Backbone:
C-alpha cells in the first residue's frame, strides 16, 4: 500500500476535497505546494496551512501519515 496523508479542507476549499481525503496517496518528495497543484487549488486562495496541528508554509515537505488542514482567508463582520 502506498504512503498516505489525511486531508481536511475547510470552508470554501471544501469544494476541492477529494473523495479519498482520509487516505490520500502521498507522491514522493511532496510538499504542501505540490499537493495544492495536484488538487488544483490556486495557492493564493489558501491562507493557513497546518500539518499535524502546526502552522507551516507551502514549502513544507510532507511525510506519510501527516494530517494536513487547509484554510481560506476568512472574512467577518
Residues:
Amino acid at each position: 500500500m502506498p504512503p498516505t496523508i489525511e486531508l481536511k479542507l475547510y470552508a470554501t476549499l471544501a469544494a476541492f476535497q477529494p473523495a479519498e481525503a482520509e487516505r490520500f496517496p502521498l507522491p514522493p518528495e511532496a510538499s504542501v505546494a505540490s499537493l495544492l497543484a495536484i488538487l488544483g487549488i490556486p495557492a493564493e486562495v489558501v491562507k493557513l496551512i497546518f500539518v499535524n496541528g502546526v502552522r507551516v508554509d507551502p514549502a513544507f515537505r510532507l511525510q506519510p501519515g501527516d494530517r494536513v488542514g487547509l484554510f481560506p482567508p476568512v472574512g467577518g463582520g
Remarks:
- The first helix runs from residue 32 to 39.
- Residues 4-71 form a domain with the Ubiquitin-like (UB roll) fold (CATH 3.10.20.30).
- The chain has a mean pLDDT of 94.
- The chain has one helix and five strands.
